[in-house]
Design goal:
274 residues, seven-stranded antiparallel β-sheet, 9 helices, 34% helix, 23% strand, elongated
């Protein structure tokens, strides 16, 4: 169904591609929750590509449905550049590793040389894609990842970098605006791994490649997310053509709209216990 505010569609699951890795623990946990409830609560959000759809948000949900055996995924279909939809980046606060220094460990990765510079130069090099990222250590010290910046090689390097620290504790994400506030405060904080900002074209290119970005790097800004749809799992798993399932979806959603069970919030909201 394509309304003025949103588009929901049943899509064959083999036509949906991820651009980032998933955490097997989180996938298994969500898989059990979906199977227990018998519903998919929030649809993944996808964008059209030439060869299918790329998942912008909902990699864990999509993978859980694949493992459950769903033939289709209910997805919210959006388009880059429309209605404020864009791609930004998350940065990672590096964890304290008691047994070794995390920066030394990253610097020891094959294919990486850490070069110390200042934040102004590091930021400029990253914006010009002359490095694969940098580690912000203090107002006067940043360390650039001096490595090949070919897209596929960059993805491979970033996977290695994130894998060196993700097993040492939960990864805390930091938005770019928060990083800028830390830098502006001129005080020493925990080291932050700063990633490049990928373009929509690069996201789509990565989606059809074997190697994906580490989870928690891309941050898609998607106003007007569709939440709490609670679609019955049987319709995602059961037999039926894509056309038949979309016809059922249109009728199901039309009934929801007629019964005033769909509400659009113009203003941003805060949601607890998600």
């Amino acid at each position: 169904m394509n309304t003025q505010r949103f588009q929901l569609s049943m899509i064959p699951i083999e036509e949906v591609f991820l651009h980032e890795e998933t955490d097997p623990f989180r996938v298994n946990k969500l898989k059990k929750r979906i199977e227990s409830s018998g519903t998919l609560r929030n649809p993944p959000i996808v964008a059209r590509m030439d060869t299918g759809y790329v998942v912008l948000d909902g990699a864990t949900r999509t993978t859980s449905l694949q493992q459950i055996g769903a033939s289709h995924v209910l997805a919210q279909v959006v388009k880059y550049g429309e209605h404020g939809i864009s791609v930004d980046t998350w940065n990672h606060i590096l964890p304290d590793m008691s047994d070794t220094d995390v920066i030394t460990t990253i610097g020891a990765i094959e294919g990486i040389s850490l070069i110390t510079t200042d934040i102004v130069n590091a930021t400029e090099l990253l914006e010009k894609r002359k490095c694969a990222g940098y580690i912000y250590c203090s107002p006067d010290c940043s360390m650039i990842l001096d490595t090949a910046t070919d897209l596929n090689k960059m993805v491979r390097i970033l996977r290695k970098v994130v894998s060196t620290y993700k097993q040492h504790g939960e990864i805390y994400r930091l938005a770019q605006a928060d990083l800028e506030q830390i830098i502006a405060s001129r005080t020493i904080h925990s080291a932050v791994m700063v990633f490049p900002r990928f373009t929509p074209e690069e996201i789509c290119s990565i989606a059809v490649q074997a190697e994906k970005l580490p989870a928690g790097i891309t941050r898609h800004i998607i106003p007007g997310r569709v939440l709490n749809v609670n679609i019955p799992l049987d319709w995602l798993i059961g037999a039926g053509t894509t056309a038949e399932k979309n016809n059922w979806l249109d009728s199901w959603l039309s009934a929801k709209i007629v019964d005033s069970k769909v509400r659009y919030y113009h203003e941003p909201v805060f949601i607890f216990d998600e």
